[in-house]
Amino acid sequence: MSERNSVADRGHDACLVELVVADPPESWAAAGFTVEEHEVRIGATTIRLVGGSTGGQGITGWTLAGLASPHGTPSDITIDGLPTSFVDAAPAAAGPAPVHPNGVVGLDHVVVASPDLDRTIAAFGQVGMACRRIRDTASNGSPMRQAFFRLGDTIVEAVSGDAGTGLGADVAPATWFGLAVDVADLDATAALLGEGLGAVKGAVQDGRRIATLRHRMFAMSVAVAAMDDHADR
User: Fold this and answer.
1) What CATH fold (topology level) applies to the domain 11-90+102-228?
2) What distance lies between CA 155 and its chain's CA centroid?
3) How does pLDDT run across 145-188, given as a tens digit for each residue?
């Protein structure tokens, strides 16, 4: 893996300020999220719902604070093909985050699908997101690699096959795959969402459980998993 041009790790003090999602607000409201003015606030992160106005689907961009903008000032770039906006600092929260009927209390991690994990690790390193750990697994039936990065209270998990494509981001960009949210009571979330939530099972993290939202039932274009909350979030 190339560490060329990497800067000091800033992930601990960074913040995932915003995710832009090409879904209508009513889809997320139907899944038990509180939506205020086309936005869902989860902890320090705002999910901005833009319907079909971007011409895409799923997560279409993110805003990051506390990292090293390549231009030295707030700017918009791509990181390994991911449209990214930088700000110097996260804006002050306008009061506490709203209560979500589905029990969501935090944004645990964001999953990025990478065609070439070493390339993605190097690109993240150039803005101050250092790789904390790499995990090799075949838990989903085929060999894959996972790399983990920190954005303040949220983890970024980059997932790839066991071999990189060798292609550049202009040809084979990284893409966002989905989110995992923390909930106060996973059993209560399951009761609320009914058939809208898959079976509860043990998570990879010791002592935690996970269930996958059947997001298409709610006309959501982002894969979302719900996990038991953990005290050190």
Assistant:
1) 2,3-Dihydroxybiphenyl 1,2-Dioxygenase; domain 1 (3.10.180)
2) 7
3) 999 999 999 999 999 998 888 999 999 999 999 999 999 999 99
